[in-house]
Amino acid sequence: MLTEDQIERYSRQILLPEVGGKGQEKLLNGRVLIIGAGGLGAPVALYLAAAGVGTIGIADPDAVDTSNLQRQVIHFSSDVGRAKVTSAQEKMGAINPGVKVNIYPEWINAANIAAAISDYDFVIDGTDNFAAKFIINDACVLCEKPYSHAGILRFEGQTITIKPGESACYRCVFPVPPPADAIPTCAQAGVIGVLPGLLGMIQATEAIKFLLGKGDLLTGRLLSYNALTMKFREIPINRNPDCPVCGVKPTIKEIREELGATAYCGLEKPNNVGDT
Amino acid sequence: MKIIVNGEKTTLADNGLRTISGLLDELKVADALYVTVELNGKILKREDFDSSTVADGDCIEFLYFMGGGQE
Question: Do residue B69 and residue A173 have CB atoms under 8 angstroms apart?
Fold first, then answer.
């Protein structure tokens, strides 16, 4: 049962037939893990907290840096030097004291990701490096955990939602990670600050729709966005029978790190997951 | 030959047979070593780039890695 305060707080979305009191209860009972408290994770965390997603996990080992502030809007100038997860938890609590925020100030890696995601209904990949993105994909596929992938660079982004066993996964598109340093990172190539905001909002929307069980998820199609041309494109992505993790004869049966994929935006931090 | 590349109608110089590898060269696709190629809705294996050919009316998507930002 919703309290009077909750009915007032969430009234604008309770009004929606797709949400209603029952949907709001689903959100309040919902559990979402956000991996990366950076450009993508920041808007996701703010909006999921505001929407009343009852339990939100947020994982990031980093401290806030001045160069984050251009896009990681959950962190303020006064947070520079503080742990990102603490900074994020504080803002989420200020927006909505009615949600529980679990923080994971350690690296999410092959050894601990299965345990971390098992406590949640839906996972958000808000990381910035391929080692992390492939570990998240493999873990979510192997543990059958639905999740939202997003990647950004310069003025462009792409996102897809993955329902393991039902829709194409990240490896269906990209079977193996690129060699370290093969693909420019945002630290090297830059990123316009609004870009992760937009992509993060799509990820948050997917999490909310998943918890509500309403609408059509962004599965089986990669949404590609170009901020300069202001064009959205949708590319149909079928499940790939040759996919090494969810194909007909999978070769990946456990979560593991892949050598050569551990470059962390130009820095060597093997086995680690950062943020976008 | 007319094909659709990343949603855009593209006219190739002639109707000669070309492979995916040839097309990557011809169109000067960036990061060709790492690009994923989807031909008419099917993700191609990299080892098939030299044997898969492009026909008039084909729909091709070049899909690129996008890692994300940084701290």
Answer: no
Residues of A in contact with B43 (CB under 8 A): 172-173, 237-238, 240, 242
pTM: 0.93
CATH 1.10.3210.10 fits A4-268, yes or no: no
Fold of the domain spanning B2-63 = Ubiquitin-like (UB roll) (3.10.20)
Q: What does each of the 276 residues of chain A score in pLDDT, given as a tens digit?
A: 999 999 999 999 999 999 999 999 999 999 999 999 999 999 999 999 999 999 999 999 999 999 999 999 999 999 999 999 999 999 999 999 999 999 999 888 999 999 999 999 999 999 988 999 999 999 999 999 999 999 999 999 999 999 999 999 999 999 999 988 788 777 788 899 999 999 999 999 999 999 999 999 999 999 999 999 999 999 999 999 999 999 999 999 999 887 544 433 323 333 344 455
Triad A50, A54, A55: Cα angle to 5°: 110
Q: How far is A18 from chain B (nearest CA, A)?
A: 32
Of all residues in chain B, the one with the smallest CA distance to A159 is B66
CA–CA distance, B49 with A207 (Å, rounded to integer): 37
ipTM of the predicted assembly exceeds 0.85: yes
Which of B:17-46 have CB within 8 Å of A?
31, 33-34, 36, 38, 41-43, 45
Domain residues of chain A, as ranges? 4-268
What residues contact residue A265 under an 8 Å CB cut-off, 6+ apart? A128, A129, A185, A186, A187, A188, A274, B67, B69, B70, B71
The full set of domain ranges for chain B reads 2-63
The answer to whether A138 touches A171, Cβ cutoff 8 Å, is: yes
**B22: β partners:** none
